[in-house]
């Protein structure tokens, strides 16, 4: 067993300075790749999108020139741990000043070791404690640079990183299997219903639509009870619902029974869709559909998922500031109404897929727990 003892160093002493520039002034007609905060996926810790723009179109925050292998750490909402490594195809891209860009000095700090460190619970906890701003918590580059990192020899860093890389790859393989099964539901839906010439009907004729509400947060007797209280962050998260209501609180909200389709219709996450797994309350950003008999709930859910691009488009077109799709417009959306027996056949196939998912997800959770334990041991010198 190795030991890191208590040797630590400030991150700023182990990384290189990153060049900044002003593309509006220095290269107005040059095409560049711009990485903003929204380009980083918090779950996969990867850059999943970027903007290709001309220099004169660059926002004021587009100032940092990054290289392949640089590690981006979001300075806003550190609890979300928005971190990612810059891939080779984004070498010389421009990143938002909302990121602290960490470029390890190769003779002092292993890049993979650093990437695991900035994902660790120790680092996240430290940043959350040092963040300022109640509504928009953030840390500065200076705070990150002055934060301490366990600093064993370079060879030891590489050894630790290799172990964590292997454990992380196991988690990612399991997640890829889960993702493929989730995509299989779409594939089955398309195979069975694409080209279906069934009559389309508005949602209001096919189910009861209700908009959620939030009971008074100042009345503590409304919260921490047996009824899940669903908010947009819970939709399609794969995680248990974070907040709950008492029966009293639920009576002051809106409640649906299992198998209702829930759709976020307000805000940045407009179009997120999920199903209630049990009796659930939900907030005012969500419209829920409890399907009438002509629609099988599983079919209705997948039919609504097919409408996600429409929901996003209509919501963004309705407002120049906050995307919103009003209930009256939401109810006008139409889905096909194929033969109920065909819907039930689809539902049975989806149930088989979901059984596989129910088997895989706990295994993935156990791998996540194992990885977190290894990570904790690694940075305490116990690996």
Describe it.
The protein is an alpha+beta fold and 383 residues long. The protein has 3 domains: 8-151, DNA methylase specificity domains (Adenine-n6-DNA-methyltransferase TaqI, Chain A, domain 2, Alpha-Beta Complex); 152-179 and 340-383; 199-337, DNA methylase specificity domains (Adenine-n6-DNA-methyltransferase TaqI, Chain A, domain 2), CATH 3.90.220.20. It is built from 11 helices and 22 strands. The chain has helices at residues 23-26, 111-117, 121-130, 141-146, 154-193, 203-206, 247-251, 297-306, 308-317, 327-330, 340-378, and strands at 8-10, 15-16, 31-35, 40-41, 46-47, 51-54, 62-65, 71-74, 83-85, 94-96, 99-104, 148-150, 200-202, 207-211, 223-230, 243-245, 254-256, 261-264, 273-275, 280-282, 286-291, 334-336. It has a 4-stranded antiparallel β-sheet, covered by helices on one side. Strand 18 (261-264) and strand 19 form a beta hairpin. Helix 2 (111-117) packs across helix 5 and helix 5 packs antiparallel against helix 11 (340-378). The radius of gyration is 24 Å and the shape is globular. Residues 86-175, 197-355 form the Type I restriction modification DNA specificity domain. Keywords: Coiled coil, DNA-binding, Endonuclease, Hydrolase, Nuclease, Restriction system. One of its GO terms (molecular function) is endonuclease activity. It comes from Qipengyuania atrilutea.
């Amino acid at each position: 067993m190795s030991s890191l003892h208590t040797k630590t160093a400030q991150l700023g002493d182990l990384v290189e300075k990153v060049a900044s520039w002003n593309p509006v002034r220095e290269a107005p007609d040059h095409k560049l790749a711009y990485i903003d905060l929204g380009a980083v996926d918090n779950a996969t810790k990867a850059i999943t999108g970027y903007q290709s723009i001309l220099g004169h179109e660059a926002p004021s925050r587009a100032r940092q020139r990054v290289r392949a292998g640089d590690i981006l750490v979001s300075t806003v909402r550190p609890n979300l741990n928005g971190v990612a490594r810059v891939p080779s195809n984004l070498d010389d891209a421009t990143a938002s000043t909302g990121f602290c860009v960490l470029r390890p000095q190769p003779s002092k700090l292993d890049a993979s070791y650093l990437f695991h460190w900035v994902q660790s619970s120790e680092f996240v906890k430290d940043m959350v404690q040092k963040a300022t701003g109640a509504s928009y918590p953030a840390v500065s580059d200076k705070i990150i640079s002055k934060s301490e990192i366990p600093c064993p020899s370079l060879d030891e860093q590489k050894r630790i990183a290799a172990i964590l890389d292997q454990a992380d790859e196991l988690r990612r393989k399991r997640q890829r299997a889960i993702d493929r099964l989730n995509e299989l539901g779409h594939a089955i839906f398309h195979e069975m219903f694409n080209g279906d010439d069934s009559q389309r009907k508005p949602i209001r004729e096919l189910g009861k639509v209700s908009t959620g509400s939030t009971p008074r947060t100042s009345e503590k007797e409304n919260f921490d009870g047996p009824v899940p209280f669903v908010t947009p962050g819970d939709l399609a998260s794969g995680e248990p619902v974070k907040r709950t209501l008492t029966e009293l609180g639920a009576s002051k909200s809106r409640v649906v029974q299992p198998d209702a389709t829930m759709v976020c219709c307000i805000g940045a996450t407009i179009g997120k869709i999920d199903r209630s797994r049990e009796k659930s309350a939900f907030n005012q950003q969500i419209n829920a559909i409890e399907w009438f008999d002509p629609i099988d709930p599983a079919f209705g859910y997948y039919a609504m998922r097919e409408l996600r691009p429409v929901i996003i488009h209509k919501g963004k077109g309705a407002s120049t500031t906050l995307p919103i799709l009003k209930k009256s417009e939401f109810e006008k959306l139409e889905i096909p109404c194929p033969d109920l027996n065909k819907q039930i056949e689809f539902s049975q196939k989806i149930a088989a897929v979901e059984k596989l998912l129910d088997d895989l997800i706990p295994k993935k959770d156990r791998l996540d727990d194992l990885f977190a334990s290894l990570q904790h041991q690694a940075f305490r010198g116990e690996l």
